[in-house]
Design goal:
The complex is a heterotetramer of chains A (326), B (330), C (278) and D (336). Chain A has 326 residues and is an alpha/beta fold. Helices cover 31% and strands 21% of the residues of chain A. Chain A is globular, with a radius of gyration of 21 Å. In chain B, 30% of the residues lie in helices and 22% in strands. Chain B has 10 helices and 12 strands. Chain C is mainly α and 278 residues long. Chain C has 11 helices and no strands. The two termini of chain C are 15 Å apart. In chain C, helix 3 runs parallel beside helix 6, helix 3 packs antiparallel against helix 8 and helix 8 runs parallel beside helix 9. Chain C has a domain of 105 residues. Chain D has 336 residues and is mainly α. Chain D contains 15 helices and no strands. In chain D, helix 6 packs across helix 9 and helix 12 crosses helix 13. The longest helix of chain D has 38 residues. In chain D, 45% of the residues are buried. The chains are: A alpha/beta (326), B alpha/beta (330), C mainly alpha (278), D mainly alpha (336). Chains B and D meet through helix 3 of B and helix 10 and helix 11 of D.
Chain lengths: 326, 330, 278, 336
């Protein structure tokens, strides 16, 4: 593997756990709890998990909007962690973010063109002609014509808003783009065009994507590698092909079995229970209360990721034992 | 095939709003037979929500039915009085968003029992007062159904407030609310869209079993063909207020014949050979194109498509297709 | 243009705008309806306490002065006081609310604690006390009202700012690395402007009412000023026989405040983003 | 819940302290010399100096404030310059009259406001809705003291069906003192003739004070009802066959009460403001007129004490409002 573009070492983000005088105690939430992640330049890494698994917190921490509680963030080998919001954003300007709801991410009082100008101004592009040129280029690249500059956010359709969001982020010439549920809420036909556009842009601008989604079919199509998250931890990571064809972790298996495909899935019992809330996570492996393979050891210690095959790691000792007989 | 219990015939409906007259529905036509699950598929703006509301006899404000009919076992649901007596009793309803559908300041027990209070059970004494005994009987029935939807400790659950349940549990309780009065048909309005993947599959399987156990027909609205494949027997596809194709689930998913259905299926990540999409945008209901509303985006459109709305004709393989280029039997 | 069209369709709001407009014109050019503005304080004992007539539609007061003319001229002081109070309160209250709502830390809590203290007692009571301390007169009334009114703006702006702060577009801007000052001035301020304008419009009416109470209780304007509150207080002595004396100044207050409230209501509907989207 | 109550009560303390600080320094720095007022109009400079000495007015202000604070904590508010009685006794005398007045006004505002607001919301854009809107906008635009005078003009002087001023007819003895609120006391002790008179006397002042409150509550209730009727759950309730009247009551209504209830807390301040002027018009022997008189006579001990009492009442009312919200909305209760 080439030198990673972005690397995290045992990254943690905890909230709450404090108690003020005469107030209800705020429960400790371990939203992100020990994540080791490497992103190679040019790859698309899918980050999959259900609501409350901490994927958005991870994105915000990588971006620098939240300060990590513990752990390291390295960009091209350089330590960029341990900073407050504005300092972190300044040093990590190569990492940018496309919001889940790009329409709401636009100030309703500002025309699209002004917002695009402003984004560049914030990043120190003072020459107006240059800004204009870049905006024109980006709008063209995302398939919007120049007239959109004069529009207000609420005059745009969902697909158009997403295109503007992409143009806004890409105009900053980032190296790594975090895409947060970029297709949620879009119709199938629109979703397809947006996905296509994202792949084209990646080739055109030499981008690396961290693609956050809960939609397995989209992730399967788009991503080179995929990481499965459950309650603040990565439980399985590997090449998309591997993970989808030979899922090792029981949670991944359940997730794949639950995703409705175009064939009727009769076989297999669906996973029991609800996704647990991060405020009362079980001891040991966070998945053990719902896990068909759970054994005594699972209740005691939190398993770490271990190789199950080349470039395929899983955090489940029972699964490892069955898949890699010694 | 037995007689339809719920049928929508040639429904044409427009809504008068600030911006003008919106022709939301333009000849929607389908029917549901006892015990079957019919999927209603369409993208946003196709008129699904207006249609659902009209079927319940609660059309949006300013709506005018220009032609057609909606009937339940021969009774017109366009008559508000008849619709009011059938809602909740004969026609159950499962809403889209279990997080919004509950009234936050009442216990779930109060809210679901209220449905039974007005619908009554088939064996309730007629015209009687709502007595304590009757309420106890309804309560017992509800607890029975809550068991069926796998809510642990139903007695206790009835005394809790909506926010104390997870999304999946709330959806189960709402399903119980739809089933409790022994309706013969249930309208399910995207009941799993707001849920996580694993919860969604649980709910889909549950619905599939319950439909069989309770012998109830279902109109299942969704935009997700994956979900359709799991639960529906037949599917009807809508585009911009028009019914474009109706057939069995396998027919629609495996061999769509209407150009729109075909292009839509091609967008599905599982089917797409290459990610494309459908060029163009859904036309505004304020200025719908004449004839086939999909014509402006259709690669097979000809002049004839823009002059007259194609009829929803039955084909040899049993499906109904509204496309003049699909006359020949496949 | 669309907004103007929408506004014109809202009849009560248009009515309110017309009332306010008329009041402003009369405050600037009272000559339009008053023969001799300099003489309105001059009495005429023969004409004392005459009932309304075609000549003097509101009758005359105990000094034989034309109540109609005095009510018209009173518009000026009513509008001056309320405009001063609202503008000063906005200048003080809006930035404080913005800072308290967007920044967190000691400065923001200090602002809110001070605001809480001011809001812990009804505004009128503090205003009466301050006006009395400063000595009777229109200027002291203005200062007393301004000193006690700004916390209302701080509160409104604080609440609105917190709402806007939680919205995704502010988070997005922070994500793009925009500075706090930029976000506050260019993004939050315009977004809270609408509710502030509504508040200010309704506040104009509210201040007119409060100022009238000060005048009525005798801590506001000094006779012979044609102050509405003061006139009611003087006219009260002649009830019930000379009912017109106390009635008409009160109706003037009602009309003008009504104008501001209707206008504020209309503006509220107009700037509601939910309505704007459609 | 108990924790919430204690915390909220404790949080009033710094606010009251700040209030005391504000009024104390404001009055002492900007006001007249209390010694000069006490000494009277014909006092010699020596007499004034002696009184200053006695009252400790020569001390630095900070020391004076400390001394005052200590005595307030002991429950001693000093002596009124005007009535020469302990201020706390005066306040205990006047407070029930004002409380009775504001409570009756509060009941009128809540009941009438919620009723009008709900009906207006349910019959949106009907004639009734428009009338409520006009009446409520006008209600908020009316100067309370002027409205009080107009009521007197019409009902007391014109039709002579309601008494002009006071709490009881002259000559009628007040009921035995339990709470000091005549309606309550006379009902409890069985003096129904007094109850009737007390009610007749309270109608006009209470209606005047509640005018703005009715308007505010009605408006907030209306918009909450309209929003609630358009909510997902109201849609759901109709879709599963609740009859329309059940959707409105109790389901939509109980949800819609949360906002107006918040307003009631804020209104209370407005009621006391109105009471200041309205008590003057009706010769109502309450805290409002007591305070105004104290302000005019620079009776600063009284001003300090009364502002403090009003601040404390205001604080308690707002806690009660928050607890009512907890009763209405279980989600709020859980956070308490």
């Amino acid at each position: 593997m080439t030198a990673p573009l972005l690397e995290t070492v045992d990254l943690k983000k905890h909230y709450g756990g404090t108690r003020k005088l005469l107030q209800r105690p705020k429960p400790l939430v371990k939203a992100v709890d020990g994540i080791d992640l490497q992103l190679a330049p040019g790859e698309v890494l899918g980050l999959v998990g259900e609501s409350g698994c901490g994927k958005s917190t991870l994105a915000r921490t990588l971006l620098g909007l939240e300060r990590e509680t513990e752990g390291k963030i390295l960009f091209e080998g350089k330590d960029v962690g341990g900073r407050g919001a504005s300092a972190a954003r300044a040093i990590r300007s190569d990492i940018q973010y496309v919001h889940q709801d790009p329409g709401a991410a636009l100030d309703p009082w500002w025309r699209i063109g002004d917002t695009l100008h402003e984004t560049l101004k914030i990043h120190g592009v003072t020459d107006k002609a240059e800004r204009d040129a870049r905006i024109e280029e980006m709008l063209l690249a995302v398939g919007l014509n120049d007239s959109f500059r004069r529009r207000y956010p609420h005059e745009l359709s969902g697909g158009q808003q997403r295109r503007v969001g992409l143009a806004r982020t890409l105009s900053l010439r980032p190296r790594l783009v975090i895409l947060d549920e970029p297709t949620s809420g879009l119709d199938l036909s629109v979703q397809a065009t947006v996905l296509k556009l994202m792949l084209e842009l990646r080739a055109q601008y030499d981008l690396t994507y961290l693609f956050i989604s809960h939609d397995l079919s989209v992730v399967e199509r788009l991503c080179d590698r995929v990481a499965i998250m459950y309650l603040g931890r990565i439980v399985e990571i590997g090449a998309a092909e591997q993970v989808f064809s030979k899922p090792a972790h029981p949670y991944t298996q359940a997730l794949l079995a639950s995703a409705p495909t175009l064939e009727r899935q009769e076989a297999g019992k669906p996973i029991e229970g609800d996704p647990p809330s991060p405020t009362n996570r079980p001891d040991g492996c966070p998945f053990h209360p719902r896990c068909p393979m759970a054994e005594a050891a699972c209740r005691q210690s939190v398993p770490d990721l271990a190789d199950v095959a080349a470039a395929h790691r899983v955090a489940c000792p029972p699964a490892l034992r069955t898949l890699t007989p010694q | 095939m037995s007689d339809a219990i719920l049928s929508v015939r040639d429904l044409k409906l427009s809504v008068k709003g600030d911006a003008g007259l919106a022709q939301i529905l333009d000849h929607v036509d389908f029917s549901i037979h006892p015990g079957e699950v019919l999927g209603l598929v369409g993208e946003s703006g196709c008129g699904k929500s207006t249609l659902i509301r009209s079927i319940m006899g609660l059309p949006p404000k300013g709506a005018r039915i220009e032609s057609g009919s909606v009937t339940f076992k021969g009774q017109s649901l366009m008559d508000p009085k008849i619709a009011q007596t059938l809602r909740g009793r004969e026609i159950g309803f499962i809403p889209q968003d279990p997080f919004q559908a509950f009234n936050p300041v009442f216990t779930v027990g109060d809210q679901i029992l209220e449905i039974l209070r007005w619908s009554g059970l088939p064996d309730d004494p007629k015209g009687g007062r709502y007595t304590k005994e009757l309420r106890a009987k309804h309560r017992a029935r509800l607890i029975e159904v809550l068991h069926a939807v796998q809510i642990p400790d139903p007695e206790e659950a009835l005394t809790r407030f909506p926010h104390q349940f997870s999304g999946g549990q709330r959806q189960r309780i709402l399903i119980a609310g739809a089933l409790a009065s022994r309706p013969s048909v249930i309208l399910a309005d995207e009941p799993t869209t707001a849920l996580d993947v694993t919860t969604q599959m649980q709910i889909l399987r549950l619905l599939r079993e319950l439909a069989k156990d309770f012998n109830v027909a279902m109109l299942f609205v969704t935009h997700d063909f994956g979900v359709v494949a799991q639960i529906c027997d037949r599917v009807t596809v809508m585009y911009a207020g028009q019914t474009v194709e109706t057939g069995t689930t396998r027919q629609i998913i495996d061999a769509p014949r209407h150009p729109y259905t075909g292009m839509l299926m091609a967008c599905h990540p599982e089917r797409a050979t290459e990610i494309t999409g459908i060029p163009g945008q859904v036309s505004s209901p304020l200025t719908p194109p004449p004839g086939c509303r999909f014509a402006p985006r259709c690669p097979r459109a000809t002049e004839a498509c823009t002059t007259a709305r194609p009829g929803l004709d039955r084909r040899a393989d049993g499906r109904r297709i509204a496309c003049i280029h699909e006359k020949e039997v496949a | 243009m669309l907004i103007l069209k929408k506004f014109l369709r809202d009849l009560p709001a248009v009515l309110g705008a017309l009332i306010v407009l008329a009041a402003v014109i009369l405050a600037i050019f009272p000559e339009l309806l008053v023969d001799n503005v300099d003489r309105i304080n001059r009495g005429n004992i023969i004409m004392r306490l005459k009932p309304p007539s075609a000549d003097m539609p509101f009758g005359t007061d105990d000094l034989g002065r034309n109540i109609f003319e005095r009510v018209i001229v009173g518009t000026r002081s009513a509008l001056t006081i309320s405009l001063f109070v609202v503008v000063v309160s906005m200048i003080v209250g809006v930035p404080l609310g913005l800072i308290a709502g967007y920044r967190s830390g000691w400065a923001s809590s200090a602002i809110m604690r001070v605001t809480d203290v001011f809001l812990a007692v009804p505004q009128l009571i503090l205003a009466i006390a301050i006006a009395q301390l400063l000595g009777r007169g229109q200027i002291s009334a203005m200062i007393a009202l301004a000193v006690t009114y700004w916390p209302f703006f701080t509160r409104t702006v604080y609440a609105e700012t917190q709402k806007v702060r939680a919205s995704l577009f502010v988070e997005a801007l922070e994500g793009y690395g925009a500075s706090k000052t930029r976000i506050m001035l260019f993004h939050i301020l315009p977004n809270v402007a609408a509710p502030v304008i509504v508040r200010a419009t309704v506040g104009m009416g509210f201040v007119i009412l409060t100022a009238a109470v000060l005048g009525f209780l005798g801590v506001g304007a000094v006779p012979p000023a044609p102050d509405w509150g003061l006139q009611i207080s003087e006219g009260r002595k002649y009830l019930p026989e000379q009912w017109w004396y106390a009635t008409f100044p009160g109706l003037a207050i009602l009309l003008l405040v009504l104008g501001f409230n209707l206008l504020g209501d209309g503006l509220r509907d107009l700037v509601d983003p939910r309505l704007r989207r459609s | 819940m108990l924790l919430f109550l204690i915390r909220r009560l404790l949080l009033i303390i710094p606010v009251l302290f700040g209030l005391l600080l504000l009024t104390f320094f404001m009055l002492r720095l900007g006001g007249n010399d209390p010694a000069a007022i006490m000494a009277g109009d014909n006092a010699t400079p020596e007499m004034i100096a002696r009184i200053r000495e006695e009252l400790g007015l020569n001390q630095p202000l900070v020391v004076q404030f400390w001394d005052y604070l200590v005595s307030v904590l002991r429950g001693d508010f000093g002596v009124s310059l005007f009535s020469q009685r302990p201020v706390s006794e005066d306040i205990l005398d006047k407070l029930p009259a004002t409380l009775e007045l504001t409570l009756v006004a509060l009941v009128i505002a809540t009941v009438l406001g919620i009723l009008l607001g709900t009906l207006a919301g349910v019959w949106r854009n009907s004639i009734f809705d428009h009338s409520v809107r006009i009446v409520s906008v006008a209600g908020l635009a009316t100067a309370s003291f002027w409205f009080a005078i107009m009521l007197q003009l019409v009902f007391a002087m014109g039709f002579e069906i309601l008494p002009l001023r006071g709490r009881l007819p002259t000559g009628m003895a007040p009921p035995p003192d339990i709470t000091g609120m005549y309606i309550f006391d006379s009902l409890v002790t069985g003096h129904f003739a007094i109850t009737w008179q007390a009610i007749l006397h309270i109608i006009m002042p209470a209606v005047t004070i509640s005018l703005g409150g009715v308007a505010t509550v009605a408006r907030f209730t209306r918009s909450a009802v309209v929003a609630s009727l358009q909510s997902e759950y109201a849609n759901y309730e109709q879709a599963v066959g609740y009859p329309r009247h059940r959707v409105v009551f109790p389901y939509v209504l109980r949800n819609s009460l949360v906002t107006p209830v918040t307003q009631v807390g804020l209104l209370f301040g407005g009621f006391i403001s109105n009471a200041v002027a309205v008590e003057a018009v009706f010769d109502w022997p309450g805290l409002g007129s007591y305070l105004v008189q104290a302000i005019f006579t620079s009776d600063y001990q009284v001003v300090l004490a009364v502002t403090l009492v009003i601040g404390a009442i205001y604080g308690v009312v707002n806690i009660l409002v928050d607890m009512t919200q907890g009763l209405l909305d279980p989600r709020v209760a859980e956070k308490m």
